[in-house]
Amino acid sequence: MVRKSLVNIRNSDVRYKTQRSHLLPGRDGIRRRLGSQQTTLMQTRTNRKRQRRLFEYDIPTTANPRMSKRVENGVIDLNDDPIIIEEDEKDFQEEHSDRNNIEEITEEPEVLSPSQSQSILNDEQDEQEVVNVVEKTLFVGEEVETEVIEMQEKLDNIESIEMRREPNDNGIITCPICNCNLSTMQLYEKEAHCEACLENLSKPAKYGTKSIEPTTMIISDDEDDDDDGIMVSKSVAITSLEKIRRMAKVNNPKPKPKGNRKEKNVRSTKPKQYLPSIKILTFDCGYRIVVDGFNFAPEVDISKYFLSHFHSDHYIGLKKSWEQGTVYCSQITSDLLQAKFKTPIERITVLRNNERHWITDTISVIPYDANHCPGAQVYLFQEFSDKNNLKKPLKQFIHTGDFRSNDKICEEFTNIEVIDGVYLDTTYLSHTNNFPLQREIVDKTSEYVREYFIKKDEANAKHRAFSVVPAPTKKLVLVGAYAIGKEKLATKICERLNCHCFVYNQELRSYYMDCGNHDLNSGEINVHLVPLGVLKNEETILKYLKDVVKVRWLDVIVIGIIPTGWTYGNMWESKNLTLSKDQKRDVSLTAWIDKDKDMLPDNWFIKQLNENKKFQIFKVPYSEHSSFMELIRFATCGKFKWNKMLATVNLENLDRARDMAEWFNVWKTINDRKFDDNHI
């Protein structure tokens, strides 16, 4: 669509000149004069872009410009004489020093005489060179450019309307929308008239030759400043561009400061995913329950949810507003839910270990200690035909949650009927992820810490003989841990060393253990349970000593212990090595033969020792998940018979899932043979 101009001005008739220019420093430190031939290349390109916009729409950017005009028969003839538009620039520093007194940049057109026009045209070789001169010297304020862009968007909306006009040979100025004669109107009246036509475009009316009265807006002196700090004085007509800008601000108001907001922003929440089948346990009667699945879409027929322990990957989705059913958990987990999420006690049912709890009239659950973090439980779900007949269950499930298997847990399920399904914690189900027993880690770690401090005391005694600097007498062991868990290692070390344990992050741990005092006792080993981030490097340890313990590092001997099962992984075998079915059977059979060989190497701590460091930090393969060998012993213990085993961890990789399923088939064959031999 060919856009028509409100005022017919040829490109070659327009010149821009600046009344005054300012010297501003550039990036290279050289001061350049804006609005002159010394503008930079970037300014020239920007001016060209602005100039094309002005010529495309031919929209004046001032309400009442000063014009010298010749009148022939009452009609302004702008086709003969070139026009020079003068542009007032505001002082750059003045504009930034007082934002509330900003004045709009105005352009003042000036009509030259015919002789001046002819001389200018003769000096130029062609129209393109004239435009290049104009583009180099044009400087338009950012506010003017914004108004022009907004007006462009308004004009784009009328492209679907057919606007055909006869060639304007007589110099008559008509409205591009309604074809009304605008020749006798002032410039601001023409703009106001066209703005009124634009506002009426949304109405179902046909635009013919019917005239639309021009409108103006008057703002009184006592009106408040707008958002940009611009005050419009009384009896000043607002241009159409100004009206568009004000309308845009009304429709899209600026966000208020955060401190003044009374209403919270409502985020668009994504729909929750459906419950995966691994989270749902289904009984013969059709009744269904969920274990560790709180972050999924609710099911109409499910109202009983079990939380095995208080770790984020299991309780994710739980919060105060969660209302999908009743949460079943241990007493410690219940206390933590109420403390962290303010979960109402009415939505929690506490399960005591080794006691039967009836979920329905025919379905019960017996929880056992999972040997994991505090409050963790392993569940035995049973379905009966009648409460009074508990000898022959119809359906049985074992859900381990996260657990560290041992002989005690295996004994809990001895001589019961066949287990239909075992939901197994498969965190370390890989033959490359094997590590020593918990008691082995605790014994070796405690013994090494005691011996280390004895050797330090002997070295300090020799040091005092020839040095005036006092040797440190206080001893500190920093044991890293998660928000919940790993407490057992710290407490066991305290028992072996006959000392007390201090807990740094006491917010949640105070609900189930004594957090102690952080003061250091001379001549005694002090154990602190700290976040793993404290043991990141020497700087974080120094910060902990300064801010929490309030002691100089020169006055204390520090040992750091980072417990993680991954420390022991991939030591002798490649992680990518896949065993055949026969090899898996051989490895599974040797798991019982090598049961007493899960020992920590004697040089485990010595090879990590570095005397050049301020603090000694050791990684120990302590985990609260079952090692690979412990998983084999649990599945092939022969104490109970199971029909199906399902993995609850590491299900993202299809190859890994197939490999675990093959391990389960091998274990089932071994366990069935053992179980049958024990019951002959």
Report on the structure:
Keywords: DNA damage, DNA repair, Nucleus. Belongs to the DNA repair metallo-beta-lactamase (DRMBL) family. Residues 524-652 form the DNA repair metallo-beta-lactamase domain. The chain is α/β, with parallel strands linked by helices. The chain has three domains: 11-251, no CATH class; 277-424, Ribonuclease Z/Hydroxyacylglutathione hydrolase-like (Metallo-beta-lactamase, Chain A); 438-624, Rossmann fold (3-Layer(aba) Sandwich), CATH 3.40.50.12650. The chain is built from 17 helices and 23 strands. The strands form six sheets. The chain has a six-stranded mixed beta sheet. A five-stranded mixed beta sheet has the order 8-9-10-11-12. Strand 21, helix 15 and strand 22 (616-620) form a beta-alpha-beta unit. Helix 1 runs parallel beside helix 5 (142-156) and helix 15 (581-593) packs across helix 17 (654-678). The longest helix has 29 residues, at 438-466. The radius of gyration is 42 Å and the shape is extended. Residues 16-21, 34-40, 49-59, 68-112, 133-146, 158-169, 204-241 and 570-575 have low confidence and may be disordered.
